Every structure is written in C-alpha cells, then in structure tokens.
Amino acid sequence: MRRLLLALPFALLPLAMAHAADVHDHDHEHSSLPPHEHGVGSLNVALDGQTLELDLDGPSMNLVGFEHVATTDSDKAKVSSARKQLENPLVLFSIPKAAGCTADEQELKSPLFESSPEEGVTKGEHHHSDIEAHYAFTCSQPDALKALDLAQFFKTFPGTHKFKVQLIGPSGQQAVEVTAKAPTLKF
Fold first, then answer.
1. pTM here?
2. Contact 130, 60 (CB under 8 A)
C-alpha cells in the first residue's frame, strides 16, 4: 500500500525531471512541466482508507527565503529551522487530532539539506533548489478527516502564498488551489 501517489503520472514528474537533469543540461524538453513560480508550491494529497499521504514540493525560496547553498550561520539556521518545522507534519498541516493519524514515514529532500552541497547544486543551479517532503500516515478515524487547514503552514512559511493541490480522496480526484487567504482543503 505504500506510495499510492506514485501510481499517478503527476507524482512521477519530479522523478522524470531529476533523471533528465542528470542527462541534459537544458530545459526545453520539459515543456510539460509547470513553470517555476515563487510563492507557489505543489501539494499532492491522497486519502485511501486509513492511509493519508502528502507530497509537498516547494521552491526553497518560499520556505527559507533563498535558493543558494547555506554558507552563513544565519542561512544554516533558516534551513535547520525549516527542516524542523517540516519534520512535524501533524502540526504543520493541522491534521485533526480526532482522526488519530500517526506518521508512518516521512522523507525530506533538498539540495539545501545535503551535507556536501557542491555535488549537484553547482551542476544544476538553474534548476532551482526545491524542497520536497513526502509523508505517509495511518489514521485510525479517517472519517474525522474532513479537511486540512494549511493556515499554520502559510504562517510558518510566509514566503509561500499558494499551493496547487492534487487531491485524491473519498469523493474522487480534484485539482484545487489553496491560498493563505483560503487555506482550507476539503476532502
């Protein structure tokens, strides 16, 4: 049951892009990918039975305020703080306590989190440093998951203004946008 989202083509884009980035150094083949916009992240949400999965992808500019490798102490502190916040998804996504969700797995990926930033960043500088997070939860009362409130996320990362969301839940698949002004995502 792991990785429900990988069955869907939109979830494969980051993988295809990562693979292509190794092979080519130019972007025109990826015309199907949405343009990189500051302040806009993408979020894939899937709820299937008791399994809730979240896949987040946001330009690091939205989350830490810069895209370069953290060299100064203040930049490193920002990266470390962002990482700590992302490691607490139940709070960050305001997942209702009544749903009884526990995190089974979480994975954070970003060139900014690498300990030896020289690899891959200088080579792929123009690809922008994105921060990707994947979470899987088991929820004992999934019926209590009526909505996700991203207000806390927007408050924590004020550089993020909007999420383009692909949501797969009990009522089927929908594409919605969630903004700081309208932060609620209904299942």
1. 0.75
2. yes
Q: What is the DSSP string of 118-169?
A: HHHHTTTGGG--EEEEEEEEEES-GGG--EEE-HHHHHH-TT--EEEEEEEE
Strand, coil or helix: what is 86? Answer: helix
44-72 b/e (C-beta count within 10 Å ≥ 16 → b): bbbbeebbbbbbbbbbbbbbbeebebbee
Beta bridge partners of 105: 136
CB neighbourhood size of 126 (10 A): 10
DSSP lists the bridge partners of residue 101 as: 139
Instruction: Report which residue type is found at 156.
Output: T
pLDDT, tens digit, for every residue of 128-139? Answer: 689 999 999 999
- DSSP 8-state class, residue 36: P
